[in-house]
Amino acid sequence: MVTRRRRPRFEWIAALALLCWPTDRAHAGFVNGGFEAGTFEGWDRVGAAQVLSSAGSVPPPGGAYQAYLENFSFVPASALAEFLGVPLESLAALSAEPITEGTAVAQDVTAAAGDVIRFGWNFLTNEDPGDLFNDFAFVTVAPAPPGATGVLADTLTPGTAAAPGTEFLRQTGYRAFEFAVREDGVYRVGVGVANVRDLSGSSALLVDNFQIDTARAVPAPPGLTLLAVGAAGLAIGRLRQVGRDAAAGAGPRTPGRAPAGTEEMCPEKAATVNPVRVLLQVVESGEHGR
Ligand SMILES: [Ca+2]
Q1: Which residues are near ligand 1, the ion (C-beta closer than 5 Å)?
Q2: DSSP 3-state assignment of 195?
Q3: Is 233 helix (H, G, I), strand (E, B) or coil?
Q4: What are the residue ranges spanned by the domains of the chain?
Q5: What CATH architecture is 44-213?
Q6: How much is the pLDDT for 146?
Q7: Rg of the chain taking only CA atoms, in angstroms
Q8: Closest of 17, 30, 33 to residue 274, by C-alpha
Q9: In this structure, are strands 185-196 and 99-111 parallel, antiparallel, or unpaired?
């Protein structure tokens, strides 16, 4: 009597793991998007900006740090526009009155159609609500896709509250900005705060949690791809062995196992694709600006 030597089961486990490699969404894009390096590493900046742990009573919405931009900077609108990579007219068009100065930070990121750029922002001001000295916070994306550049908040924005412990009378509180990218490309994403008509009555902008939610497939690393090919070969070999066992009357295969390629192999994938959430945060020391 010939005794068949069974292959170890790890080959099935390897095949299962690789065939279930998740491929839908991931977080990527911004370097130091949450300012958790404690500096502006990865960012360009112009004007009066710093990384803070908390601004008075306002803690960062994510991690231990956030970026603080103040509009009292002596940086004119023309320099802001050049820094942000947008036409001066498009920046000036955001305000009914002349922009006298401002501060901005920006980062160049690669994004694809369908990606969503998002971050959190909080506008603080000492200006009374009004049209003449209507300081404002803004976002720019260059080259400018439609709908990507605009005012985040100004002195007329409703829903503001006191900002105890800060230098400012009012704050909007942290709110979310989202922009869906329509075309693949490299975009310069900037945010800033502008002083309008005068050089007093300062305002500020807090920002945090810059990220890109991407719809691109996340390929398995090359080494794992090779492993997948090998494991698939082992699995096919195993299937053939099981078939021969069945034909020879060696009994049914292990209950609960299904052939390769069926949804039973990846139950979680059959129900809903398990997302990969990879937060790329490069934490490096040092600080630089433009
Ligand atoms: Ca943070």
Answers
A1: 34-35, 60, 62-63, 65, 208
A2: strand
A3: helix
A4: 10-21+220-288, 44-213
A5: Sandwich (2.60)
A6: 65
A7: 27
A8: 17
A9: antiparallel
Question: Residue 220 C-alpha to ligand 1 middle, in angstroms?
Answer: 29
> Rounded CA gap, 172 and 52, in Å?
18
The parts of the chain modelled with pLDDT lower than 70 are: 1-28, 145-147, 215-290
Hey, what amino acid is at 75? V
| Spatial separation of the C-alpha atoms in residues 42 and 67, rounded to whole Å | 13
8-state DSSP, 198: S
| Contact between residue 189 and residue 110 where contact means Cβ atoms under 8 Å apart | no
Ligand 1 geometric centre to CA of 32 (Å):
9
What is the dihedral sign for C-alpha 158, 139, 62, 275?
positive
Question: Please, what's the largest Cα pairwise distance for the chain?
Answer: 98
- Exposure b/e, 93-120, CB count within 10 A at least 16 = b: ebbeeebbbbbbbbbbbebeeebebbbb
DSSP state of 252: P
Token digits of residue 254: 């292990």
CA of 161 to the centre of ligand 1 (A): 22
Residue type, 168: F
The per-residue pLDDT for 154 is 97
